[in-house]
Give the backbone structure.
Amino acid sequence: MRIGVVTKWFNRGQPVVGRHTRSALDQLGHETFVLARPKKERGPMPGALARDGVWDQPGVTEASAYDIPLAEYVAWIEDNGIEAIFCDQNYQFDELAELRRRGVLVIGRFVWEHFTAEHTEGVRRAYDLVFSMTRAEQERYRGMGLETPYVPWGCHPELIAVAREVRREPRETVTFVFPGGFLGHRKPLEPVLEAWSRVRSPRARLVVKAQVERRLEAAERAAAADPRITLRIGDEPTPEHLRAVAACVDRAVQAAGLDHADIDVVLRTGGSSRIPAYVRMLAGKFGADKLQEMDTFTSVASGLAIAAARGLAAAA
């Protein structure tokens, strides 16, 4: 099936869900396309839309505005032969209802605390299906007269791969990360800092990560008084990230007592291995002819299942 994903497309929670949704649909054998909504013009990072790093993917069409004109929806659907679309937090009920009238299956979800009873009439017109990602969300919608299937959200393979690498690092310190994002009302930074002030262990570390420089006064005072606290403002530039990844590759080859020329095959697996910037980096180090892709979205989960089965067998 040819499926479209309508989502914001830069480093934020909702766009990450959209990107992971796309990879899940790819894994199921569907052909996917993205219609990328630039961020609203108000607030931090107005008009944000990324095309580097993990956001550098094929089949992405940039919309002209957050509220996408109907003509752009129709052209995108017709150009790509799209049969169904997935939406996240999309309240363009009139436009979506017209797409549905034209035979496109419309599926979506909402940030439940933003969704109110006044939206239910529009949802019934515009959506074939709205799903819930928590039982509380499902129960709230049921109280508004909407039956929404529960779709539990899992852990994407690229996150599992990162966690596996982290476990290999020395355990001399324990780091807690506060993902502040835009430091809006749903990011309780000051209560976290108050709780942290009661932590006495010298092994503990706190990283306060934010994408914007605002509402940081309390964190700046805390960091000045406690060397265990680190502030990281802004996203890591893609070139720096790629250099760090390339250095990991070099260390792995060196640890094996080999040179890059000694490597016969580089097996690319896991969702992140499809990021074009990573592919170019590996091709530059080993040669494009040595790169092979295999079980991109299933290898990590399969490996964990095999490891768990072996562990259970050993315990028996």
Q: What stands out?
A: The mean pLDDT is 84. The chain has eleven helices and eleven strands. The CA atoms of residues 191 and 197 lie 10 Å apart. The longest helix spans residues 238-255.
